[in-house]
Each structure stands twice: as structure tokens, then as C-alpha cells.
Amino acid sequence: MAQTIEAFVGKSLDEAKISPLHKKIVGLIAADYFFDVIDSY
Fold first, then answer.
1. Residues 6+ apart with CB under 8 A from 11
2. pLDDT tens digits for 10-36?
3. Where are the domains of the chain?
4. 3 contact partners, CB below 8 Å, separation of at least 6
5. pLDDT beyond 70 at 6
6. Radius of gyration of the chain (CA)
7. Which of 14, 26, 31, 39 is 20 to 30 A from 5 (CA-CA)?
8. pLDDT at residue 1 tops 70
């Protein structure tokens, strides 16, 4: 049975593991947002 590309992508994202690289990227984005907000005030 063939599945649609939307189903394939959705299933792949649901089964994906979070790597240390993902955590570093999220941390850098959060730090950038924090310093941007501080700089605004």
C-alpha cells in the first residue's frame, strides 16, 4: 500500500530522535532571543 508524502513526512517527524545538535541549536536560538529582548529594553 502506497502512502502519501504528507503521511511519510509526518511519520518520519514523529519517529525522529532529538540529537545533541538539536539541543544546541535550540539553546542558541533561545539565547539569541533572550539577548534581543534585553537589548530592546
1. 3
2. 999 999 999 999 999 999 999 999 999
3. 17-41
4. 11
5. yes
6. 17
7. 26
8. no
